Amino acid sequence: MTDIIITNIEVVPGRTITQHLGMVQGNTVRTKHAGRDIMAGFKNLVGGELIGYTELLTESREEATQRMVAQAQAIGANAILNVRFSTSSITSGAAELFVYGTAVVLE
Amino acid sequence: MRYHNPKIPEGINISSTHPLADFAWMLTGIALGLLALVVSAHLLAAWLVPQLPFQFEQKILRTVEPVWEIQTKLASADEKKADYLQKLANRLAQQDTLPEGLVVKVRYINTPKINAFATLGGNILIHQGLLDNLHTENGLAMVIAHELGHLVHRDPLLATGRATVSLAAIALISGFSETRVAENLFSLSAQSLLLSFSRQQERRADQYALNLLNGYYGHTAGATEFFESVETLADNTRGYNQLLEFFDTHPNRGARMDTIAATISDPTAPLVPLPDFLSSTRR
Amino acid sequence: MFEVITLLTLTVIGYIFGSLNERRHFRSILEREETLRGVSTFTTRIPPQPYSGASHLATGNVVISIDYFKKISAGLRSLVGGRVNAYESLVERARREAVLRMKADAQRQGLDMIFNVKLETASITKGAKGQIGAVEVLAYGTGLSRTP
């Protein structure tokens, strides 16, 4: 993906942090299209994985992460620590995917 | 330090109850609960209703009455019929001392539906279709006296009370439930509950009517006329459609007819014919 | 009457296919848990010291739909109260699937330990009537390597 290291702990094990650059974040709001909803409606009858939804959320999270990484790169960081994901549904159809962390410079 | 994940045994986070067994238990529980609710509603209504004065019924109805007056506004020919029906009802009612406050109001409705029913506030509704299928005053008197019986026994209020309590309970349940399932299930039972008299109530009203008839004519001959004409009508489709509503509100007519027929002591007694102006065809 | 028949049919179809699906899914989960046994998960934040290998975030997510039987079952359950068995197995499946995908993601990156594992569960419906009923689980953590 990128050469930026992302972790959700306070350190990058075995590396020393030389600079803390503060919080970086990435987010995206996505909604599914009607076709996916129809399939999902059918799946609601028989159960099982909603592959369309899984893919949608994966893609969206990747996009949010890309945006966070872009922010970090813009300020000269080479790692993001203590990363967290958060998902909130804004209306019944749309979801916000939000990711944030601390940009640092590793030696 | 050693970092590893030993295998965790299965089934700790999932209950071992079979989903179907679980489902069956819940269904049984809910059905029993609902049954208890409906039974207690019926008992409560049966206890409460006789204690309420007739004025209360009339008060409930006061909001609806002006609408009725407009709907049942009559042509002059129809007014004559309404007047006749009201007078017949009054004469029948004189055979018994009506409970205090009960004022019987007969309303004639010019539709081909073959039905008559008693409702809140001492109202008896009679459709033209019923008049067209009767030829003797005795037969008509039986129908009116039967509805009088319902009024005297407070059956309309009882039915309304039951339906209200049951519907309230159902609304409460489906309000708590997150899915539409509960509503669907319960709307069905609600429909059958609403405003239908029980067999016992019908029998009681029949008995009351026979007493009135006996007092008024001195015999009960002709009391089964309405049932007989219903039986013949039910055999052809057009008649059947006109009767649909009657079937809905009056189940079990065969058994009732037999009971009534068995009490007629003097079947050859002379019957009073209905005046011609009551019929829609012989006008 | 028509409503009740539809309801019953849907429930039966939901039960048959739903439980088939669930059984198949659990079987696949157990299999993959065996093959991914090499990747260990921990919720602790402190990595092994000293460490000189790679580290990177590993994530996995899945959206799993309820079936009609579970929906009805939970609806009835909400009248009587108590443990909603039908949903327990659903969220269990979703969690384990998400963790498995996270492990697979770590393995793809050549990592075999995951620290500070976080699980996020979100309902997609928010309880709205007549809506899609599904649960999303996201699993993520910091992937490290045992063999630097």
Can you offer a commentary on this structure?
The complex is a heterotrimer of chains A (107), B (283) and C (148). Chain A has 107 residues and is an alpha+beta fold. The model of chain A has no long low-confidence stretch (mean pLDDT 86). Chain A contains two helices and five strands; from the N terminus they run E-E-H-E-H-E-E. Chain A has one domain (5-106): Hypothetical protein apc22750. Chain B (Translation Initiation Factor IF3, 2-Layer Sandwich), CATH 3.30.110.70. In chain A, strand 4 and strand 5 form a beta hairpin. With 283 residues, chain B is mainly α. Chain B has a domain at 41-154 and 206-278. Helices cover 61% and strands 5% of the residues of chain B. Chain B is built from twelve helices and three strands, in the order H-H-H-H-E-E-E-H-H-H-H-H-H-H-H. Chain B has helices at 19-48, 54-62, 65-71, 76-93, 128-132, 137-152, 155-176, 181-193, 199-217, 225-234, 237-249, 253-263, and strands spanning 105-109, 116-119, 123-127. In chain B, strands 1-3-2 form a three-stranded mixed beta sheet. In chain B, helix 4 packs across helix 6 and helix 6 packs across helix 9 (199-217). The model of chain B has no long low-confidence stretch (mean pLDDT 77). Chain C is 48% helix and 25% strand. Chain C has three helices and four strands. Chain C has helices spanning 2-35, 68-80, 85-108; strands spanning 40-41, 55-67, 113-123, 134-144. Chain C has a four-stranded mixed beta sheet with strand order 1-3-4-2. In chain C, helix 1 (2-35) packs across helix 2 and helix 1 runs parallel beside helix 3. Chain C is elongated and about 70 Å long. Chains in contact: A-C, B-C. The A-C interface holds A 5-14, 37, 40-41, 43-50, 53-54, 57-58, 61, 83-87, 89, 92, 95 and C 10, 13-14, 17-18, 21-22, 25, 45-53, 55-57, 59, 61-68, 70-71, 97, 115-116, 118, 120, 122, 124-126, 128, 131-134, 136, 138, 140-142, 144, 148.
Helix and strand layout, with pairings?
The complex is a heterotrimer of chains A (about 110), B (about 280) and C (about 150).
Chain A: E1 5-6, E2 17-31, H1 34-46, E3 47-49, H2 51-74, E4 79-89, E5 94-106
Parallel strand pairs in A: 1-4
Antiparallel strand pairs in A: 2-5, 4-5
Chain B: H1 19-48, H2 54-62, H3 65-71, H4 76-93, E1 105-109, E2 116-119, E3 123-127, H5 128-132, H6 137-152, H7 155-176, H8 181-193, H9 199-217, H10 225-234, H11 237-249, H12 253-263
Parallel strand pairs in B: 1-3
Antiparallel strand pairs in B: 2-3
Helix pairs in contact in B: 1-7, 4-6, 6-9, 7-8
Chain C: H1 2-35, E1 40-41, E2 55-67, H2 68-80, H3 85-108, E3 113-123, E4 134-144
Parallel strand pairs in C: 1-3
Antiparallel strand pairs in C: 2-4, 3-4
